[in-house]
Amino acid sequence: MEHEIRTIAQEELEAFRRCQAYAFGNEFNPEHLEVGRPLFEFDRNLAALDGGLIVGTAGVFNFQMTVPGERSIPTAGVTMVSVRPTHRRRGIATGVMRRQLEQVRERGESVAILWASESSIYGRFGYGMASQMDIVRIPRVWANLRNDLPVPPGIVRTLSIDEARESLPAIHERLRMLVPCSIGRWDKWWDIRIFRDSPDWRDGHTSNFYVVYEEEGVAKGFVRYRRKGDFQDWLAKGQVSVAEFYAATPEARVALWSHVFGMDLVETISWEYGGMDDPLPFLLKDPRRISRNRIDAIWLRVVDVEKALSSRAYGAEGRLRFEVRDPFLSGAGGRFELDALPEGGVCRRSSAEPDLVVGPEELGNLYLGGGSAGALWSAGRIRGGERAVALADRLFGWHVKPHCQEGF
């Protein structure tokens, strides 16, 4: 049975969100509905309907995302994907996701990204694991920095909420351009997702602390974190939970981690969004004491191969001919030729025999520089010769691994 798929009107938002809450096992909260309404993009949502009942949902946020070469491209941030439990296994998610990708391409966006609630879902729609992250836990007693690290010449300063509202957006925008997969924020996003800081979102922790590291009045990094005080038998059991951490220089990194590690009455420091190649272990005297649980992070779908691959810089110079076999999105696959340079690249359709054959999932894995063509080839997911695989790794690789600290 086919279901109607369309955007919703303003008055249908509650039914849309109730479907999503039901699918995720959450209690629907009318207050959260109204708080988030200004961020909801009605022209970019899709609902599947069975009669008049919303049984499937998907939405998009209009993002700007950093790609290798300190460039920013328009990106569809896919979110709120759900299917009502009574309507599973009826092709609803497949229909909604295909329609959504078609609309993404029509709007001129070359890639879509998402966080996967389950890592087994989105590969069949052509999304590939573009980045990974470490869930980091550090016992405070072992959070000691090495003695031979750079001595920061600047100062660490805590911002008031008013100071954070005034200065942090510009600092974040400048620093996120250094890290592929980082996402820009607009004013309403800052207001609602960061500065509103509702107690409902804190899990018993304090409101946000905003701390910057400055040299001669210029911010070189910042950290946002919460605290949670606790005692057991008069022993401190407090927690520090790092929400995001940006540092442009080694000195900034040392100064900000020194601040986080130096707080009293703390037993555990955690960071839910640790980067896949973050240098934190190299800062510590005893790096084995860090607990790091590596999981998939951002999943990426290329919807316009020529445009996407012509929008980033590359790790080396070379020419690669490849074929993308894309059974899910009509017209997205084909044969292509990439002329890559460290300062940029040009990708165009080609009739030549390909050096490599990939699917959209594998291309998504490589696109931001966080994947490995060699690993995919060894797993049987890429077809081609070893020299072409090695060339793909040199071209797509980047010295800064993709890292997203923005939940959506």
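That was protein one. Protein two is written in the same sequence-then-structure order:
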Amino acid sequence: HASWLPVYMLWALPTVGWLLMCSAWARRLPFLWAVLLPLLTGALLSATGLAKAVGISHAMLWGQGIARLLLGTVPGVDAAWRVDAGHILLTDPSPSHVLQSLSLPSLWIGALVGLAFIAIAIAVRRRSDDS
């Protein structure tokens, strides 16, 4: 369905932006940095209890933070954030139900974060090209 395209593009924006930012910043092994940095940060925050100290639950850290950052390009991943999404997608994959994802605040917050990552990547690339 063509209705998946806008949802998928917006949902993938944080992951794409993160990968672009890491490739602009890391001189060597950018993909490794892009994957290991969030995983190690999440492990450190979980192991030390700092996540709970600042009011972030493990589900929010790993599910809405790290998994969203690293798995945003998986087609249909937005279904994990919709209530009863599996039922909707299996019984009625119509464009109206697919486009319901556009009403999710997490989609728009992620899109803004992705745009910020892309802006940072552009700034880093411009600075590195000037030298």
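Residues 105-130 form the longest helix (26 residues). Keep this in mind for the problem set.
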